[in-house]
Fold this sequence. Notes:
Elements: H1 4-8, E1 16-17, E2 23-25, E3 28-29, H2 30-37, E4 41-45, H3 46-60, E5 64-69, H4 76-84, E6 88-91, H5 94-102, E7 110-112, H6 119-128, E8 131-134, H7 138-146, E9 153-160, E10 182-183, H8 188-197, E11 202-208, H9 219-239, E12 245-247, H10 265-283, E13 289-292, H11 296-299, E14 303-315, E15 319-324, H12 333-337, E16 344-345, E17 356-360, E18 369-375, E19 384-388, E20 408-413, E21 416-421
Helix pairs in contact: 3-10, 5-6, 6-7, 9-10
Amino acid sequence: MTDAGALARVLPATARVNGRGHLEVGGCDLVELARTYGTPLYVYDEATVRARCRAFTSAMGDRGEVLYSAKAFASPAFLRLVASEGLGLDVVSAGELHLARVAGYAGDRLHLLGNNKALEDVAAAWEARATLVIDGFHEFDLLRRVVPAGHRIRCQVRVSPGVRPRTHDFIATGQLDSKFGFSIEAGAARAAVERALGHDRVELVGLHSHIGSQIFELAGYVAAMEILLDLMVELRRDLGFEPERLSAGGGLGIAYTRDDAPPSPERFVETLWGALEGGAARRGLRVPRLLVEPGRAIAGPAGVALYTVGAIKEIAGVRTYVAVDGGMGDNIRPKLYAARYEAILASDPEGEVGGPVTIVGKYCESTDVLVVDARLPRLRPGDVICLPGAGAYCLAMASNYNGMPRPAVVMVNEGRARLIRRRETVQDLLATEVL
């Protein structure tokens, strides 16, 4: 594994090269896992999941709550693991809420977000007694259709602080020009809070914000906190409202390549808490409970994707294409966000690398490219390639494009592997068809 120290930061915590010279995670040989379960295969390391959860909860202590963002990866088995570490959960649809309840989550640990909630979403939140994060004026009307007279549902109002972090345009969410949240600078946030306070079905418990995803520079969070605290001064002065909870969202980035150096969970939480506590003290505000919502930062580093090499196409003086048996159907991120990944030969991670190759998928699209200019030992058909950092927003965004069944998922720990999601079959493709 060339530059093993740098590559270690993108691999799960238990990754090592075993006595056979193969890459191992959770005490399980990745080449053997590929042979046993087939590829594409997603492998999650239980120890890494637990360690990432504990890093956030330990840093937070009793000052607030850590909520895992289910949209990163929401297998019930994975959610049960996260729940066992004491994390709450934010979901963005009635479907994710259903998965959470199957996983055993109680309503008081659930938060339902989303910018265009349907009546069914709001009804599911009420039935589960989850906290509803209001993200549009239309939701006030939906609440009257769902919550019985004389009852109230716990709510937070999602506000947009007008901060644009340094990240991909498609995953920046806190600026004025965004579909998410009530804008503070446009006055919509104050109007939404005022309406919530006067609504007979709403128990307003807090404010919520989120500025984006895959963020390395924490200054954006501090800037957003200052704006939120200024809003809180206005709300206390004009409406007599002080939130019990303040969610600063998630979005902490992870290392996808050896060159990435994201902040630690501890630094993320301490930066947010310092900005909240210090800013509240300067303004004479009561300090609310802080909520953070890491998703990618928990699931992402814990997961790797395994693929088997198939066709190899060498174009002299131009490029060598190495095709694998997955691609954009199980990982759309390179196409959608120009995301970059490392690639490792699972059977020889420390082998001498050759010239650059471009790893492509098998989907009928010229843009089905996973890694450009990967540096690997010479590859042959049948080799197993590992892509680290694949635990978040890969399977969650997977599709059946080209009629391809979605991959299997295994959880590994202390030398044992257990299947937590079976591979789809071609018969599964017909499950919703009316023949």
